Amino acid sequence: MKLNELLSLDLASTDGSHQQLLQRATRVLDHLPEATPGSQITLAFGGNREAFAASLLATWAKGHGAAIVENDLRDRIMPVLDRPPVAMLLHDTGSGRKLQVPRLLADADLPKANVPMPELTASPLLTVHVQTEDGLQHWCSWHAEQLRDAIVAFGETLANNEHAAPTRNQAPGLISSLFANTLLPMQQGIDLASHTAIDAAGLPIAGVPDTTSAHQQTIDAMLANDGITDAAVTCTEDGRVLTALAGPRANELAGETPNALAWNDIPRDPNGQVLAPEIFLAFGLGRSGNEVSKELNWQYGPIEPTQASMRCHVPTNYVFCEGHFTNYPVLAGGAQLHELVLPCLRQLCDALPQLERLDSVKFLARVTPGDVIDVVVRTADDRQLVTFEVRKANEDVRCTSGRLHFATTLADFAERSQDA
Questions:
Q1: Does the chain have fewer CB atoms within 10 Å around its N or its C terminus?
Q2: Is residue 55 predicted with pLDDT exceeding 90?
Q3: CATH number for the domain including 66?
Q4: Which residues in 102-166 belong to E strands, given as ranges?
């Protein structure tokens, strides 16, 4: 199947809007790398549908598969961008990362349309990181023929639906919007500039898990209560259903409902989808709905009056490693100070004076889940200055160092038993 057999494209068309779409795709195409077996281009757009459509055409014309992000939030972009097949990012976000497509298209006059119409051999041709109504995320993929059939079936469903309403607030990568407002119009030869975007959320799409009915019943039941203005559900890794409620009676109803919490405003992304990581964190879980550990078990090392060391093992599910970098857990610098260095000093000194300032801090290597960490502290002659080092004991690598200045003098480090 060729590109112009999947979508209605014609280089010879005299329609101005159609030509402009192909010209934009030509401009993007010139900046894409050559395709390799299985290669993909990630598309992450918050609202520029014309730039999104041009990027999609260019991606397929170059021979790549397209990996679509449902919005332009970093938490959703990184899991897609970090996949090994991804060769490049096309986006309309405010970050300085290449390639920001609207900026590229605005830089100069558009070239003559020259978009090849190759056989669509990329496998898969389209991958979308979809979030369903339960807050879980799924990789949904289609080959060329599967995608054509899915678009056609979706068009038939949409034609028989009386409830789809116009919308202006959905990102073009949102799965329902992708089919309703980009793929279907382009397959039918409809000009995107004149197409009125519709909200097709909840309509079935071949290849996408359908969780609407079960969870929508829960949400509808909650919204039927007086004083509840918003409700959402998310599911943990082990299948536990968590409920978020908002409204004047949210606290009351949450107290009567298992695994429910009240919110002033339920956190949602620009598409209206619940921000599941924020819900999980509020329930004391990790950003993926996983159980987390909040405790460190310490052992004392050698202790002298002005120098001491303590050792701990960072749990693989340590809560303070959550969320600093998406899909790449590390212990942030502030967390190292508050969870490693200061707790060690408190145990060594019993009472700790007020901390006045921190200086000469260097971050030299990452502290990650599973590391065995040594914290080494030394006091200066005036007993108000403490230098510290955070080291990986199993690799003898210095991760962090710095100096702490206290308002008054510290007591001598006292001898302790082996376990803190």
A1: N
A2: yes
A3: 3.40.50.12780
A4: 126-131, 137-142, 165-166
